[in-house]
Amino acid sequence: MVNALFFILAGLAIASAISCVYHKNPLYSAISLIGVFLSLASIYLTLAAPFIAVVQILVYAGAIMVLVVFVIMLLNLDEDKPITRLRYLFPIGGALGLVLLAQTMFIFYAVTKAPQPASDAGLEVGKTMSIGTAMYTEYLLPVEIVGVLLLMAIVGAMIMSRRMREPKIELVKKAEAEEA
Amino acid sequence: MESFLKTAFPFIAISIGIGVAFGVVMMIVAYTVLAERKILGWIQGRIGPNRVGPWGLFQPFADLFKFIFKEDLVPDKSTKFIYYLAPLVALTCALMPMIVYPFGPPINVDLAAWLPYGLGEGFTQIPLTIANLDVAVLFVLSITSVGVYGIALAGWSSNSKYSLMGGLRSSAQMISYELAMGASVIGVVMLAGTLSLTGIIDAQIHAPWWARWYIVPQFIGFCVFLIAAFAETNRVPFDLPEAETELVAGFHTEYSALKFALFFMAEYVNMFTVSVMCVTLFLGGWYIPGLDYLARQTDLVWLFGVGTVGYALISHLGFLLKIFVFLFIYIWIRGTLPRFRFDQLMNFGWKFLLPVALGNVILTVILVFLLNR
After folding, report:
1. In a domain, B195, yes or no
2. Which of A31, A54, A65 is the mutation pick for testing B, counting most B CBs within 10 A?
3. Cβ-based neighbour number of residue B322 at 10 Å
4. Which parts of chain B sit beneath pLDDT 70?
5. Is residue B272 part of a domain?
6. Tens digits of per-residue pLDDT, B231-250?
7. Which residues of A touch B (CB under 8 A)?
8. Does the distance separating the beta carbons of B171 and A66 come in below 8 Å?
9. Which domain, by its residues, includes B317?
10. What's the pLDDT tens digit per position in A128-167?
11. In a domain, B27, yes or no
12. Nearest-5° Cα angle at B224, B219 to B227
């Protein structure tokens, strides 16, 4: 049953990923990407990791993609832009795809070779409590570093948006003074 | 046959549960619409709908049939696929939180004695919630945040300036107020020490007497949550996305017939969801203080002691009553308050509500520290 669910959800994820890459209309691509995130979240749920699943929806599908959709809606991009300019990227893409395939094969190989963990040890892993405990004891330093980085990003964004605005106001004032 | 039944039993049971919950919620939503029209009528010195059935009681069904049989207009230049997708997204995301609603306390029944083929083996309780998710609070918040797409995409795909403005306004508003909403919930989660809705109700039952309902230690959080909830559901005084004096009807200007009805239902289901969250987080959910004490005092434990059908029924009715109070407050405020201006709305959300919610988090940290010392 769980296997069947996995194949349905994985198929959905792959189908959405393909449609995300192949659609010419950026909004359709964005919606497909949301589909990828949602099916991934469902797979996490079947793997008994509800916290990761919900955070996946909350952060990626709920917050980041909303901004992406927002920008696409406001820009109203053309649907059929010529892609001839990007021709030379095709061989690079093919090579990278091969590398990815090799990596996947290696992971398959490593997983089948690795010793199987005891079945009941993993029951608590996906729960909020265990994740929180791990984050604030074992992985405290990375968490703090990420926190500081995010704060820097926020402050940086504020400064950038402010600097953009001030000269404009001065220009307007100058123009008003000249008019008067 | 027997083994098949045994495998299929959990799915059948859960499907029945979902069906019942869906029916009940949709009925309540339908009658919320009628109640809104009636109460608004009374507030404004009118009678309200009273033609269909006694006191207009069949009005919701008349409206539904009207929506089904109306002509379904689709704008010629719209992006068809997204135009059809948007109402579905809106209603689906509105309905999905239903699976974690704590409708009532669990009923203790020895199911093995009641069901044939040993189907009930190992089940000694009927939980009155469909899925007791470990992260229910986050689940509800995340599904509501996905619901933004319904409105934003509806606005964009209709290819009309009023729709687009409504959609943009609504997305901006919902993203802004989600933060305040999430921050106001943190206090409750810290006090309860769990993200599960059932767990939060349990924590409130076992709290010291002055904190039986978290509205007392979390009054600031409650106020922030309530205000953010009004904004999240696009209700007056935050109904900028559909401000009819500026935007005709906002994001659903170009929608007609049943597709409009889906948006309409989504709005009211969202109201219900937010009321459920409010009741569960701040008013003890289905818990009625003193009910089990009363049962023990009057020797009626067999009738409504903890774990009996009577207890579950009374608690469930109490739960619904609390929700109706919130739904009434929604309607009441719609009848009383004028609409915000958009910059006021943004300033209020970012410069007042969010700092207050964060301050509440800090206060709660101190409170939890003092309690656990």
Report:
1. yes
2. A54
3. 23
4. 1, 110-123, 241-245, 301-302
5. yes
6. 888 777 777 766 666 777 77
7. 1, 27-28, 31, 34, 38, 50-51, 54-55, 57-58, 61-63, 66, 69-70, 73-74, 127-128
8. yes
9. 74-105+131-372
10. 788 888 888 888 999 999 999 999 998 988 888 776 555 5
11. no
12. 125
